[in-house]
Design a protein that fits this description.
transport, transmembrane helix, two-stranded antiparallel sheet, metal-binding, hydrogen ion transport, about 300 residues, two-stranded antiparallel ribbon, CcoP_N, 4 strands, mainly alpha, about 55% helix, Cytochrome Bc1 Complex, Chain D, domain 2
Length: about 300
């Protein structure tokens, strides 16, 4: 928060407190010339009279006490701009405390899984049920409630794994995240016809019917530029997250327009790290659930 905004908030708070005190004081006292309580001249039904009695002193004092309480609250807790309060409390600190307590409770319930490999945790129905709930709350936003993903978000229920499918690979993906970078190659390939030919060759790698002449031209560009990451055979490299171009799985689509766009503009896929968000126990449980999706228990 900037010093200007802090000063503005402090001024607003002080004005409200002073204004409340003044309003109580001004409305509670009787002034000379005020009519007596029974002299309002307001009558109904002949025998009902409106009086103008002041509020009881104890009631007024309660209002003053609430103002004193509010001032004490602002001294102890943050509420005066950038002033953090004498108590040292913060919403971020409270959140971390609550998260740590929840993590300890969860860890105590699943202590027996703390040192087990992910594939062994995946055999326990209770662990998988908990991992599924964590997945639904955290991962389904991108991968879908059924974990089948969508355009740009991997399907976690099949056997196609861009970064590897071993238990260690999956746990590393969940805990540390992944950063996939397909740089744009429009300038490197130069002529748009070279881009088109390369896209045609990429289609041919997965067995699609294409123009063989264009594919042969595109093969030369692929070998000189794309093979560095995807390999000479186009099977990719899980160590760096380069996609396998020889199967029928296409994260961004297999139309010629989709492949051309990938070559010309590149892609920047990001899987955020979740260990700091979910903690050790939760990430292991959700990794076990993800592992179970493509490795059904036999």
């Amino acid at each position: 928060m900037t010093s200007g905004w802090s000063a503005f908030i402090i001024a607003i708070v002080v004005i409200n407190i002073v204004g409340s005190v003044w309003l109580l004081w001004w409305t509670a006292r009787r002034r000379s010339g005020d009519p007596a309580a029974d002299s309002t001249s307001h009558y109904w039904d002949g025998d009902i009279t409106e009086y103008n009695n002041p509020m009881p002193r104890w009631w007024i004092n309660l209002f003053y006490l609430t103002i004193v309480f509010g001032i004490a609250y602002l001294v102890w807790y943050p509420g005066m701009g950038a002033f953090t309060g004498r108590g040292g409390w913060s919403s971020a600190g409270q959140l971390k405390t609550d998260q740590a307590a929840a993590e300890r409770l969860l860890a105590s319930h699943f202590k027996k899984f703390s040192d087990l490999p992910i594939d062994q945790i995946a055999r326990d129905p209770r662990a998988i049920a908990t991992g599924q709930r964590i997945f639904a709350n955290t991962c389904s936003t991108c991968h879908g409630s059924d974990a089948r993903g969508g355009r740009g978000f991997p399907n976690l229920t099949d056997d196609n794994w861009q970064w590897g499918h071993t238990p260690a690979d999956i746990l590393q993906t969940v805990q540390e995240g992944r950063q996939a970078a397909m740089p744009p190659f429009a300038s490197a390939l130069g002529d748009p016809s070279n881009v088109a030919a390369t896209a045609v060759y990429v289609q041919s790698l997965s067995g699609m019917k294409v123009d063989p002449l264009l594919a042969n031209i595109g093969k030369q560009s692929f070998s000189g530029i794309c093979a560095a990451c995807h390999g000479a055979d186009g099977k990719g490299n899980p160590a760096i997250g380069s996609a396998n171009l020889t199967d029928d799985y296409w994260l961004y689509g297999n139309r010629i327009e989709d492949i051309r766009a990938a070559i010309e503009q590149g892609h920047n896929g990001h899987m955020p790290a979740h260990k700091e968000i979910l903690g050790e126990t939760r990430t292991r449980l959700v990794a076990a659930y993800v592992y179970s999706l493509s490795h059904p228990k036999k």
